[in-house]
Design goal:
The protein has 708 residues and is α+β, with helices and mostly antiparallel strands. 67% of the residues lie in helices and 8% in strands. Among the domains are: 178 residues, Up-down Bundle (Multidrug efflux transporter AcrB transmembrane fold), CATH 1.20.1640.10; 89 residues; 203 residues, Multidrug efflux transporter AcrB transmembrane fold (Up-down Bundle), CATH 1.20.1640.10. It contains 26 helices and 13 strands. The longest helix is centred in the middle third of the chain and has 37 residues.
């Protein structure tokens, strides 16, 4: 490491020039990264819903309807004309309306009221539209909203897509614009120079830009990764830069030259910073073992970001610090942080109650966080927005609609007709549009024109479009999906059927994610525990540190359960690994100082000294991480991102409190166990244990004297 440090300082000019070039190139490639806004596309390929979607794509030109358009004050004739207008739009593949379900030559009063009310109610026509260009969802939504006017309404997947595209492209800049000054403000209080925070932000920003640009090697990244990846990378890697520059300042205070001080700082800080980075790196990387592909998408990008931040800290930061040390000196100020002596005394004074309380809440917190009700969809709209108003208007007029597609073997018309009748007997089922309902079994398919036949029948399948009055996500939605699957399986015992739709996809997501989470969480705990074990050469410390952070996670995730708030599965997924990987660093730093102090001090004194010396180092990064989370919550209109920010912000603060108050007391409590299970660790005899041993020796001697 000494040679590498020497090379970094010797070739500082080359390194600086290289980073400038890489930053410019990465900035360009970052604009070329494609974003995938379809969360359903990350369901495993072997899931039945994925197979159904792929089969339908191969067999039919038309997809499932992904938009519902309501237009008021239309007569039946005007509604039919508007259907033609919608069908003529260049991005529209298909428009389904009442005439596809019923013969409009018959008076409406004689038709099935449930069917009629599903498409035409109180002179408002509701069209089910299939739009074929998701990439331009924002522009399409604006055009549709202008077409229907202020009294019309648009809802559906295309609206969700447009909303997420707008959020990622416009809100991320606002979030960064808020996070950067907040982080700078926190760093100004945490450092002793007005200029050091600027260096930190430059170095981490370069690491973030390198990560964003290198994402161009992927086909695309998910909108969740695009929305939170940069913010998380900035928040979790800031302490690497702080630790290195603090070491640099210490060696300068000892009288070393600028270049020698930086060489020593690189050598001395490499192992602890690398250990901290590895825990975060492996915490993120374990997400690649998820079958639900949003995990690998997010995990690879975040792990890559940690690595690139580490590279920036150890290559770019030393170069910038050596070049700008005069500015650092001129902008030096007194530390704004307190001594934390009072905090350290408080931590020890309430140590026993803290341990007892934490022991009592461990099992309830674990059970509560396992009992959360999860949401698997990705969208809810801010109150008062056009999207929210449109959705509420159509819900009030027509109820909530869930579209599904059923593919059954072609030619078995009697079975299909009976199944259709059975499906329509389900109270929530509003309509079923297919060959047996639109054409009838008495007309041979061969004599029908292709424009009528192609949406209904392919080379191998007959397709039914089902519409049920259910929300996009609820227990009833999942129950209906399971019921329909059972009914179809009973009607076609030989198989060959496929069911596609958001409810089937979310049902498969639910099953897949529940299986994945146990494996991924277990791997994350194992990987991080192994890193700690090798770093400390200890068996006890990994258990103590991981348990401290895991309890923090359980408390954090128990809050939604206790408050009765549904939790998006993305928040659970990310926080279970991110909070562990990112905040276990605080515990590592506390444990390292405790062991160092125990070479000279008693258990109590070492614990107090550790809190006193570590608090100033872990509070700033924890506050930055918490601020990043709460800003995501406050600014993002994307529900998944906002909820993730909420649990991330709360998790950072809970972990900070647990590391400051619980961990030092656990280290005291298990002091002897730590010493016995740590390789070549020698601590000074604790005076309390010495007194107990001395009392025991005196007692034994007295007993011997009495016997004699």
């Amino acid at each position: 490491m000494k040679k590498l440090a020497g090379i970094i300082i010797k070739f500082k000019g080359v390194i600086l020039a290289l980073f400038i070039i890489l930053t410019i190139v990465s900035g360009y490639f970052a604009t070329q990264v494609k974003t995938n806004f379809d969360i359903f596309s990350y369901v495993p390929k072997e899931a039945s819903s994925t197979i159904a979607i792929n089969t339908m794509t191969e067999e039919y030109d038309q997809d499932l309807p992904n938009a519902e358009i309501g237009i008021p004050d239309l007569s039946i004739i005007e509604a039919l004309e508007m259907k033609k207008v919608l069908a003529a739009l260049p991005y529209v593949d298909e428009v389904l309306w009442l005439d596809d379900q019923s013969d409009l030559a018959t008076p409406l009063s004689l038709l099935d009221k449930k069917v009629v009310d599903g498409f035409y109610y109180d002179e408002m026509a509701l069209y089910h539209v299939t739009i074929n260009d998701d990439s331009k969802a924002q522009d399409i939504l604006v055009e549709l909203q202008e077409l229907v006017g202020p009294d019309g309404a648009v809802r559906g997947q295309i609206v969700e897509m447009a909303f997420m595209q707008r959020g990622v492209t416009t809100e991320m800049g606002r979030i960064v614009a808020f996070i950067v000054p907040v982080a700078l403000l926190i760093l100004l209080f945490a450092t002793k120079s007005w200029f050091e925070p600027v260096l930190f932000m430059i170095v981490i920003f370069v690491g973030v830009l390198l990560n964003m640009g290198s994402n161009a090697i992927f086909k695309d990244v998910s909108f969740i990764t695009q929305a939170v990846g940069s913010v998380l990378q900035l928040a979790v890697s800031m302490d690497y830069a702080i630790f290195l520059l603090h070491r640099f300042s210490e060696y300068r205070d000892e009288g070393h030259t600028i270049e020698d001080a930086m060489k020593l700082a690189i050598v001395k800080s490499f192992t602890p910073v690398l250990s901290s980075a590895l825990t975060t790196f492996f915490g993120f990387l374990t997400l690649i073992f998820m079958r639900f592909q949003i995990g690998p998408d997010l995990g690879i990008v975040l792990a890559k970001g940690v690595f690139l931040s580490l590279i920036s800290v150890f290559l770019l930061l030393p170069v910038l610090a050596v070049y700008t040390y005069k500015i650092i000196d001129k902008t030096t100020h007194k530390s704004f942080l307190p001594s934390f002596k009072g905090l350290s005394r408080l931590v020890i004074r309430i140590g026993i109650p803290i341990i007892i309380i934490c022991a009592l809440i461990t099992v309830p917190a674990f059970l509560a966080q396992r009992s959360n009700y999860f949401l698997y969809g990705s969208q809810s709209y801010p109150a008062g927005s056009r999207e929210a108003v449109d959705s509420a208007r159509l819900n009030e007029q027509f109820g909530e609609n869930m579209q599904m597609a059923l593919l059954v073997p072609k030619g078995q018309w009697a079975v299909e007709q009976q199944l259709t009748k059975d499906l329509l007997q389900i109270p929530e089922m509003k309509s079923a549009i297919g060959y047996v309902t639109q054409v009838g079994t008495g007309i041979p398919p061969d004599i029908l024109p292709d424009r009528i036949l192609s949406p209904l029948i392919s080379d191998h399948y007959s397709r039914l479009i089902l519409v049920a009055e259910l929300p996009a996500e609820s227990p009833e939605t999942f129950e209906l999906a399971e019921m329909v699957r059972e009914m179809v399986a009973d009607a076609y015992p030989g198989g060959g059927t496929h069911l596609a739709g958001a409810n089937f996809v979310m049902l498969d997501m639910k099953t897949t994610i529940n299986q994945d989470l146990f494996i991924v969480n277990g791997l994350a705990i194992l990987a991080i525990a192994l890193v700690i074990m090798f770093a400390f050469r200890s068996l006890a410390l990994p258990m103590i540190l991981v348990m401290t952070i895991e309890l923090s996670i359980w408390i954090n995730l128990a809050i939604p359960y206790l408050t009765g708030t549904p939790l998006n599965f993305i928040g659970y997924l990310v926080i279970s690994t991110v909070q562990l990987g990112a905040t276990v660093d605080y515990g590592i730093l506390m444990a390292q100082h405790y062991i160092d102090h125990r070479q000279l001090l008693s258990r109590k004194e070492a614990a107090m000294k550790s809190v006193q010396t570590v608090a100033g180092s872990i509070i700033p990064p924890a506050l930055i991480l918490a601020s990043a989370g709460f800003l995501l919550k406050a600014i993002s209109s994307i529900s998944v991102v906002a909820e993730l920010g909420q649990v991330l912000g709360a998790g950072a603060l809970i972990s900070l409190v647990m590391v400051l108050f619980l961990l030092p007391n656990l280290l005291r409590l298990f002091d002897g166990f730590i010493q016995k299970t740590t390789w070549k660790l020698q601590m000074v005899p604790d005076r309390h244990s010495y007194r107990r041993r001395r009392a025991k020796v005196i007692s034994d001697l007295d007993a011997i004297d009495q016997e004699n």
